[in-house]
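USER:
Make up one protein:

ASSISTANT:
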Amino acid sequence: MDGEGTGPGTAGAGRPERLPDRPLGGAPGGPPGRWFAGAEGRATLALVALRVLYAYNWTDIGPALPALSRQMGIAEADWGLLLAAFFVGAGMLQIPAGLLARRYGNLVIALLGAAILGVAAVACAFAPNVPSLLLLRGVCGAGAGLFFSPAIAVVAGLHPEGRRGVPVGLFSSAYSAGAGLGVFVTALLIGPLGWGPALAVGGFGTLLLVPIVLTLVPRPSVRIGPQPARRPPWREIPAVLRSRAVWVIGVAFIGIEGASLAAGQFFVPYAEVVRGWSAPIAGSVGALFVFPSLFGGPVGGWIAERFTNRRSWLAVLTAGPSLLLVLVPGLPLAAVAVAATIFATAVGMIYAIMYVLPAYLPGIHDADLPLAIGLFNGIQLAGGAAVAGIVGWVVATYGYDWAWAALGGGAVLTLLALPLLPATGPRTTQGTAAARPAG
């Protein structure tokens, strides 16, 4: 799920205009504090906050699964369907989001998606039955899909090239803060409020933040996306959609996508049912499977812009921490907390590097980055939906021990596609990757 070198484009006939390289907050190469100073800094932090709520609405269903089972009669084998519904909705809208953003602008599509997500999340509280809840979770995912890649382009466009890694990394890893809060807060709210009001909290927060972001994003000093054109530049789209590198990124990280999203959500019912831990303890440790990623993201973004051996970083950060998931059933509480923290921190670094990576792929221009991100993110989300469904089936059929093995092993299995990714080198000033690869 990011493309941190996004400008969003190069000027030309029928093509979106490139964002200025020098933001209002200062010139490239200024002190690190300038990342979040001035109008651009406030806008970036507001978008990060919206990303937190985006993620909150994604993961808050996990702690509600036992309550939904009691009230609606949902079998454990079907829990994966509720998780997968969001994946499917989000995955289906990844490529359309990139196309719509080229036509109407990144900010417009990002905030439209956030609004749809907020409305559908609130509506989930009033779902009368399982089919309606599944549908609404799918709509939530669709809103999330519209929001994500255009929002990355907005964040990247607020900062000059060479200084986008940390802001984009923070935006990426903010998912983990929201996902952790979604697990922890919802686990605490379900007891006193019930699953319905607990699910509505994130939706109301999202709807409140949308107009704030609209107000804070600076205009017209910084153009937040391509200007509306009579017709989108269709001639450029097939090249991106046919890019082997983009497809490889999508396939190679299907496993880590499913593991990172399912681990925290399945952990709370696992800890309560199998381990016998209390809801606060289960929610706290479950949050550790996602929350520490907040600190890994900026580090990963910095690495992606400072080093050229990006494939090696991705391989090491994915394989080692993923195998820790296999050990979870045999670990005591403190060790599970440590393993969860290591895993989540690595995930934050992985996604930040992954979202920066397209800017360094040969033949990918700034204008194509949101669409490239949408393509590989859509592949990962579709695969993640399958992972969630498979894990739910494994839990019901073989138990949680085998489910943890499936999560860790699956992340390593799909990583075997990574060697097919072309090596990447430094970024050129023309908005494409240099021909000389590095790793």
